[in-house]
Design brief:
Blueprint: H1 3-34, H2 38-65
Helix pairs in contact: 1-2
Amino acid sequence: MDELEKLKRLLHHWMEHNNEHAEAYRDWAKKTSSLGNREISEILDLLYYEAKRLNRLFEKAMKKIG
């Protein structure tokens, strides 16, 4: 496996791992909201959306590799 193929696999792995974190942020946002802490919930929601935005960058990099 050449270095670019290795990088493509790593990018895919990182994206999957990032998705797992994103879902955890969303779950905790819901939990903290139900506990009445809207401020923390909003921050966790932002983390969720930023993580999803990162996934678009992972995809873009993978497409450049081919």
